[in-house]
Amino acid sequence: MLRNPIRTKFKSQHTFFTTKGIKGTQKIKRIVSVKIKKDYFFTPQQHQLSKRLFSRRVKDKGGKLNIRFFPHLSLTKKPLQVRMGKGKGKHHRWVAPLKRGAVILEISGRYIKTRIKNIYSHLKYKLPVESKLIIPKSSRRFLKEKLKLMIK
Fold first, then answer.
1. In CATH, what is the architecture of 32-77+88-151?
2. Tens of pLDDT along 117-150?
3. Which among 25, 53, 65, 129 could bridge 40 via Cys, Cβ 3.0 to 4.6 Å?
């Protein structure tokens, strides 16, 4: 089920991006995260897609997913063939405005380290914006050792 805000203070808000910002760019240590490389408006469908993709890839409940964005901003749109003026348009859809460098997903768990490349390869093709996988240094060593054992 798609998630939308239950109640908002104002019916329609201004939409804007600031050029730089650090809110939402920090990540927690020892957790694998996914960062985006460009500014983007994420919709509730993309929120649901990332949640569903993760739950299908991790069957044994060994991992935990933290989605760090929520579609809270209302975009408006005027109907076709309407003249200029007479106020702002009606609500069109909900979006989450995210800046470049924002962490959108945090993945943790005991068996996740071995499956993270597989999960990210599927997620990368589904997301509409370029993203980057960030793995902590302790996890990188673990993954390199695991890959060496798999090759031999």
1. Alpha-Beta Complex (3.90)
2. 788 888 888 888 998 888 777 666 656 665 565 5
3. 129
